[in-house]
Design goal:
The complex is a heterodimer. Chain A has 13 helices and 2 strands; from the N terminus they run αααααββαααααααα. Chain A has one domain (2-294): Orthogonal Bundle (ABC transporter involved in vitamin B12 uptake, BtuC). Chain A has a two-stranded antiparallel sheet. In chain A, 76% of the residues lie in helices and 3% in strands. The longest helix of chain A is centred in the first third of the chain and has 31 residues, at 2-32. By secondary structure, chain A is mainly α. By secondary structure, chain B is of the alpha/beta class. In chain B, 34% of the residues lie in helices and 20% in strands. Chain B is built from 6 helices and 6 strands. The relative contact order of chain B is 0.12. The chains are: A mainly alpha, B alpha/beta. Chain A binds chain B through residues 2-3, 6-7, 10, 13-14, 117-119, 121-122, 127-129, 137, 139-142, 210-213, 215, 221, 252-253, 256-257, 260, 273-274, 276-277, 280-281, and chain B through 4-8, 11, 13-14, 16-18, 20-21, 23-24, 37, 40-41, 44-45, 47-50, 70, 72.
């Protein structure tokens, strides 16, 4: 029972991290109709900014907080210099240009921070474990990710559902041309959405940094998973991204935690321990394919 | 054995599910093989999960001169096995490590030591043949003699051309300057031969 609870928490923690990354991606894709492959680069830059700022301020919390405005500034610059020119282009041009951005950022990191990976040390209050239930220890830092990720998800939900900006974002996701015709400053909205996406990506990057490595190309690995999530959730839908991220988090953890034992009930030990990682690796893609057959625009995608 | 796990290589760097399994299984020790960044992450997450005080961590290729700068004190006390350690007391190794540290101001890694051995082996064959490397059979015969001073201590080739060499147990420690490194604490196996050499007729 304890074991199950811990694994579910692990799934929630992974899901929330993925949600932060997917939220920005689904907004830019849904509202701006922009395929942004460089979203993973913003995630990576968030981790490197955090490494520098934490070293500079000598405080984990302060450095992490300073990373967010830095990421917002970076997002605004990237939007103004490169992305703005791509709105009128088709998806293939956007893919090419943002792929170029990936190469640019990877090389930029190599020039500024060098090729070797960096590690961010945790402050004492986050490096141990907390007892979430009596006799049930859980890593304090992973628990902090759940708390921060949960609060940010709630804030984002509140903003999208309850504020005027959120209303414009939702309107933009369902019909961009119409809100332009109604006199909304589309350029400003796009810059805001892109900057917001950059902040969420950087937050995911900085929170993942002490668990994973801060290294060149760290965003490229995780970007594919983020695309899977927004496709399952429905492009442009924050709610869809959240639910899909939670489902993907649980499936990934389930595949690692329970699948080997499940397979051992009818396979030999050796076959089971080889097959389990292979199956759990394709599990989320099978789910995605299943969702697309059932609902071609994703769980909460626009209905045509 | 309480359990075993194969994780997704190389894209999995988060081991939360596996560490929860380890906690539930309550083994006396955990043995891992995670070279490079994976070793850094595993050791860090192992400590973050609060398992280091309860379960012994044993490893190969996961705590070395490459990963220790990032693992730091988290790796302290963990044991590993390898055919070379930077403090082996043979003359070739003393010279290699001293030269390397003078030039790079850092400990050499196992990878460097292995490359150094390879170069010395090739040099021994080239010198024996006085630089005439045209006859490949003679080059092979000279290489097979392994007539060089290995930094690993004793070194010779078995009938299947795998090395016959010692394996040492190493512990992650701090040196006198407070820098993380590994030191030899025992010889695990002397003149170890790989277990399959008798089945290999080299044909």
């Amino acid at each position: 029972m304890d074991y199950l609870a811990i694994q579910i928490l692990n799934g929630v923690q992974l899901g929330l991290l993925m949600f932060l990354l997917a939220a920005g991606l689904t907004l830019t894709f849904g509202i701006m109709d922009l395929v942004n492959l460089a979203h993973g680069s913003l995630y990576m830059m968030g981790a490197y900014f955090a490494w520098t700022l934490i070293g500079w301020t000598d405080s984990f919390v302060l450095g992490a907080l300073l990373t967010l405005p830095a990421a917002l500034a970076l997002g605004a610059v990237v939007e103004a210099v490169v992305i703005r020119r791509l709105y009128a282009r088709d998806h293939l041009d956007q893919v090419l240009a943002t792929f170029g951005l990936i190469l640019f950022f990877n090389e930029l990191v190599r020039v500024i921070w060098g090729p070797a990976g960096k590690s961010i040390a945790l402050p004492a209050f986050l490096s141990g474990t907390v007892e979430i239930l009596p006799g049930l220890p859980y890593p304090a830092y992973r628990f902090a990710i759940i708390v921060v990720g949960g609060v940010v998800a709630l804030l984002l939900a509140w903003m999208v559902q309850r504020t005027r900006t959120g209303m414009l974002i939702r309107a933009g996701a369902s019909n961009r041309r119409m809100i332009g015709a109604l006199g909304v400053d589309i350029n400003l909205l796009f810059t805001l959405v892109f900057g917001l996406g950059a902040v969420f990506a950087a937050l995911a990057g900085l929170m993942a940094a002490p668990i994973l490595s801060v290294k060149i190309g760290m965003g490229d690995d995780i970007l594919i998973l983020a695309f899977v999530i927004i496709v399952i959730g429905g492009i442009g839908s924050i709610k869809g991204a959240f639910i899909a991220a939670m489902v993907v988090g649980q499936i990934d953890i389930f595949g690692r935690a329970f699948l080997p034992d499940l397979l051992k009930t009818f396979l030999s030990n050796a076959a089971a321990s080889t097959a389990a990682p292979a199956i759990s690796q394709v599990l989320i893609y099978l789910v995605m394919a299943g969702v697309l057959v059932w609902r071609p625009t994703g769980l909460f995608g626009p209905r045509t | 054995m309480a359990g075993e796990d194969l994780t997704k290589w190389p894209d999995q760097l988060d081991f939360s599910a596996e560490l929860a399994k380890i906690r539930a299984a309550k083994p006396e020790g955990v043995f891992v093989f995670y070279p490079g960044a994976h070793g850094v992450q595993f050791v860090r997450q192992f400590v973050q999960a609060g398992l280091k005080d309860q379960i012994k961590l044993y490893q190969v290729f996961s705590i070395d001169a490459i990963t220790l700068p990032q693992q730091g004190e988290l790796a302290l006390g963990s044991l590993g096995a390898q055919q070379w350690v930077n403090d082996l007391p043979n003359d070739a190794n003393k010279r290699y490590v001293a030269d390397f540290r003078k030039k790079h101001n850092d400990y050499p890694s196992y990878y460097g030591a292995q490359a150094y051995d390879s170069i010395m082996l090739i040099a021994s064959a080239a010198e024996a043949l006085k630089g005439d490397l045209a006859n490949k059979d003679r080059v092979r015969a000279e290489l097979k003699k392994a007539n060089f001073k290995s930094v690993r201590g004793g070194f010779s080739f078995n009938t299947n051309n795998f090395p016959i060499q010692n394996f040492y147990i190493q512990e992650a420690v701090k040196d006198a300057d407070g820098k993380m490194t590994v030191k030899t604490i025992a010889t695990a196996i002397s003149k170890a031969k790989d277990p399959h050499f008798e089945k290999c007729p080299m044909k």
